[in-house]
Amino acid sequence: MKRSTVAAVLFMGVAAAGVAALQPGLARTVHDVKERDDVVAFPPPAELHVAVLGWDAAAVDLLWAKLLVEYGTHFSEHREFTEIPRYVDAILELEPTYAPLYQYVDTMLAYRPMQGTESDVRLARGYLERGTRERPQDPNVWLKLGQFIAFIAPSFLKDQTEISAWRLDGAHAMARAGELGADQDETIAAASMLSRAGSTREAVRYLVNAYAFTEHPAMREIHEAIGKRLEALSAVSMRDAADRVMRAIDERHGSEMPAVSRGQYLLLGPVTDAARCAGAAAASDRACAHSWEEATAGPGSSGGSP
Description:
Helix content: 55-70%
């Protein structure tokens, strides 16, 4: 065998041994990088319009399909998926009214692979609120926002005051969805939440609208259910208003004329401070009211009677 042939064989053997020695380590490195980092093969949102050369709708469909595939792949491989906002921002840059995104973005963020966080939930709420601005007449977006911040998001929050505020906001959004034509069962649920939160007057207002929207014979059952709920809440509202008036009068009676009987005090009317109530500027001051109706009127109300 020629010396050159022997050298070539030896070289190939050394090369093969080198590949065999290095391949496992390189494979592990590639695998670790793949497990840790995702490669997003599209430019930032600001450059997308130029990059897609006017094919905005096609690019949106492609990005949405890619997002769905990556979401499922990361779950199946038990890998974190932190690039969801990158896809969402890109889609909204090209088509801000894209309905499928608003239908699922809360789930993708709150239950992203492998675990959603409080910041993910806040981000999801921001996207859904944008959806109500981009699609203000879409009951599905309002309903999605309301259900998410009323029922799902609170489990990720820690502050009880904030949780209550989010649930109240959710009830408002669900009621708005009902006004726009969503399932009127959601309006009843929203009204119940508002009532429990102390917003009986707003609950009544939403139910009045829903009652009017369901007058069609085909919706008779839900129409009657809303009517019964409205009747009950109206009674509660009137009772609460009467209780508020009585409390206001009793407080003033005890501080202003405790020696006078309650009946005489009611006949005399509210006591006013002459110095404080002088001039036109005091006309809107409730402390200067000359009748019990004005003195006990709640904010934004037309007053009540003792």
